[in-house]
TrEMBL record:
<keyword id="KW-0658">Purine biosynthesis</keyword>
<comment type="function">
    <text>Catalyzes the conversion of N5-carboxyaminoimidazole ribonucleotide (N5-CAIR) to 4-carboxy-5-aminoimidazole ribonucleotide (CAIR).</text>
</comment>
<dbReference type="GO" id="GO:0034023">
    <property type="term" value="F:5-(carboxyamino)imidazole ribonucleotide mutase activity"/>
</dbReference>
<feature type="region of interest" description="Disordered">
    <location>
        <begin position="1"/>
        <end position="20"/>
    </location>
</feature>
<feature type="binding site">
    <location>
        <position position="56"/>
    </location>
    <ligand>
        <name>substrate</name>
    </ligand>
</feature>
<keyword id="KW-0413">Isomerase</keyword>
<feature type="binding site">
    <location>
        <position position="29"/>
    </location>
    <ligand>
        <name>substrate</name>
    </ligand>
</feature>
<protein>
    <recommendedName>
        <fullName>N5-carboxyaminoimidazole ribonucleotide mutase</fullName>
        <ecNumber>5.4.99.18</ecNumber>
    </recommendedName>
</protein>
<dbReference type="GO" id="GO:0006189">
    <property type="term" value="P:'de novo' IMP biosynthetic process"/>
</dbReference>
<comment type="pathway">
    <text>Purine metabolism; IMP biosynthesis via de novo pathway; 5-amino-1-(5-phospho-D-ribosyl)imidazole-4-carboxylate from 5-amino-1-(5-phospho-D-ribosyl)imidazole (N5-CAIR route): step 2/2.</text>
</comment>
<feature type="domain" description="PurE">
    <location>
        <begin position="18"/>
        <end position="169"/>
    </location>
</feature>
<feature type="binding site">
    <location>
        <position position="26"/>
    </location>
    <ligand>
        <name>substrate</name>
    </ligand>
</feature>
<dbReference type="InterPro" id="IPR000031">
    <property type="entry name" value="PurE_dom"/>
</dbReference>
<dbReference type="InterPro" id="IPR033747">
    <property type="entry name" value="PurE_ClassI"/>
</dbReference>
<dbReference type="InterPro" id="IPR024694">
    <property type="entry name" value="PurE_prokaryotes"/>
</dbReference>
<dbReference type="Pfam" id="PF00731">
    <property type="entry name" value="AIRC"/>
</dbReference>
<comment type="similarity">
    <text>Belongs to the AIR carboxylase family. Class I subfamily.</text>
</comment>
Amino acid sequence: MTDEHPTPNSPSSANPPPRVGIIMGSHSDWNTMQHAARVLTELQIPHEERVVSAHRTPDLLFRYAERAEERGLEVIIAGAGGAAHLPGMCASKTVLPVLGVPIESAVLRGVDSLLSIVQMPSGVPVGTLAIGTAGAVNAALLAASILAVNTPAIREALRTFRKVQTQKVLDHPNPRQP
Ligand code: RP5
């Protein structure tokens, strides 16, 4: 039996088609992956979020990855935990850049997820980020950098993001006063 999935967002002028797809292996990953969505929203990059499990909904994963390019996606961010084969399997079915976010697992603190995602055999790359929230945030920023190659507005949004980040540190030099 194939894994059916609701039709993704229908684009409109108020709701432009997603350029980045954020997928994750479980609803339990959203606590981490929401940070990727938050950063993309801040940078005004249209994106979508979906739960797509490599082992619970394998047919859905294949269909999502195979159709991603024709649907207009340009980058996929995939978060998974434990035996985290989602990013690698996704990358095997598309030539779009796939950025992997290792979810911090309860038992091995995400080292299992990290090694599962980062140790791709040669030929099918996954750009692997840090474990947890930092990885989710940086995956979004890296996706933005990729899109910025052809979208100057995103490059400017990234420059602004960095400036704001720098200024926050400069404005609060005293570690006792966060
Ligand atoms: C992976 O298994 C998911 O990415 C998640 O991180 C982990 C645990 O999933 P749940 O048991 O919480 O659904 O597939």
